[in-house]
Amino acid sequence: MDTSIRDKYQAIIGLEVHAQLLTESKAYSSDSTEYGMLPNSNLSVITLAHPGTLPRVNKSVVEMALKMGLATNCDITRYNLYARKNYFYPDLPKGYQITQDKTPICTLGYINIKDAEGNDKRIGITRIHMEEDAGKSMHLPGETETLVDYNRAGVPLIEIVSEPDIRDSVEAYNYLMEIKRLVKYLDICDGNMEEGSLRCDANISVMLKDAPLWGTKVEVKNMNSFRNVQRAIEHEIERQIMVVENGGKVEGETRNFDANTGSTTAMRSKETLNDYRYFPEPDLPPLIIHQEWLDGIKAAMPSLPQELYKRFVEVYGLPEYDAAVLTDAKEIALYFEELCKHTTNYKAASNWMMGQVKSYLNELQLHIRDFPLQPEQIAGIIALVDENKVSHSVAAKQVFPYLLEHPELNAQQVAEQQNLLQQSDSGELTQIVQAVLQENPAKVEEYKAGKQSLVGMFMGEIMKKTKGKADPKVANQLLREGLNA
Amino acid sequence: MSTDIQTIRKIAHLARLEFNEEKEQEMLQELNKILNWMDQLRALDTEQVEPLIHMSEEVNVLRDDVARNTTTHEEALLNAPRKDSDYFRVPKVME
Lengths: 485, 95
Description:
Chain A is of the alpha+beta class. Chain A has helices at 3-6, 59-71, 169-185, 226-245, 291-299, 305-314, 320-327, 330-339, 346-364, 375-386, 392-405, 411-417, 426-439, 441-448, 454-465, 472-483, and strands spanning 9-20, 57-58, 75-76, 79-80, 83-86, 96-99, 106-114, 120-132, 136-138, 145-149, 156-162, 198-208, 218-221, 253-258, 263-269, 279-280, 287-288. Chain A has a 9-stranded mixed sheet with strand order 3-7-8-11-1-12-13-14-15. In chain A, strands 6-5-16 form a 3-stranded antiparallel sheet, with no helix packed on it. Chain B is flat and about 55 Å long. Strand 2 (57-58) of chain A pairs parallel with strand 1 of chain B.
């Protein structure tokens, strides 16, 4: 789209994110939430809505919702009611979903993200409420009936609704990534969009810049990856602009994103939308969040990515880039934190994490929890380099790989056993330097005639003779003395 | 207060129920009877009365997060009108 047209318009975006909670059992009954079981095996009479059954709230669901509320700076609702959202569809046998309507457990929070220019931006959180997932319907080609699996019915979700504070697809992407980071740090959801444990719907409208009223909003569904959310929003903004540019009116409707075509198509119009007829759920008594309970949860909150980011920059003096990379995944950040307890060379620690450690993990497709070395061992390697006992190159190419194969050793032991300790004993080195100079009389003359670059060649020879163990600083010093003698 | 035939049809649609014309009229009369009774209740001043949602005073009835499947696969499918060895089968639904 021509930027002169595009630039006339402002998009207004709000996101609704569903996060499937990492509980053992369902939201209102004890059946297992384990993924990948045989169809219709994680069940109870409650999930199947047999008459006379009563739901009962899973305490962990409440606590996970509270954690997310605290992490997103929300107000906590002290007196909670559950509500029935009525709809008749075979994926939920009760004919209603138990959710929250008028008393969402968390309200009016915010998270901080980066905007498209990399500046800080605050996105408001309207509400977070608890609810349950539906079963899975399968419409197989050639089948005259729909197949239903209720293993997922009743699995707990939280829905996180943002304020319409998002202005473009980059902000939407960054917001969603931050939500993912938070749920993973809190250990309440695995944050996997491709597998559907994190789902996102976007409400999008466009208006002429400085228009007094917002445009009609369109809801876009079925974006099953972080990139697809960005693509879908890009496409939808341009589609709406074209409608307006061509003198039309944007219809208030729900549209489906098709990842293959990168475009959206109409699903249903708002007028024919279900009327959910919410009313308070009489089967579940009120839920009261008392101060003591909330204090306990606050005290058990882990460090959050933005706190760690701040600490890495301000206390450890790391560049913002390093801090961002290291805090992207919780386990990496915590490993780094531990590493920093054993070394004060924080920048070197960061370089090892982002360099050798990450490459090793990537190469073997390992998670950091399966990394064979303890933070102390990495700190040991850093100390060897800092004390000039081995060069960085020997540390990276020899000590580190050997240690990985012999994780029962420490770095000092590896350097000793493998005879890698640098020779900084100038007596022995002086002899080697002299030998190199005597073997290359022509080069020495050239150097003396002004070819300074030959120092590199001489250093190379010294390293060859010492198998890379010469302390480069001492060797360089001795070499210059020898050449200038 | 009374309702009309359009509302009856809308409610029936939302509940996926179908009535013939005679039954529709019957439902209309039944519902209007209930609404009339509600009108009598509305004569009372309830300004200072909280809505009653629950019949007991209990709060925070919670369950620890322990997984236990209380119904087997076979039991679950036992009463299903249409099923196969794995799934419940329902009339084809597409949104």
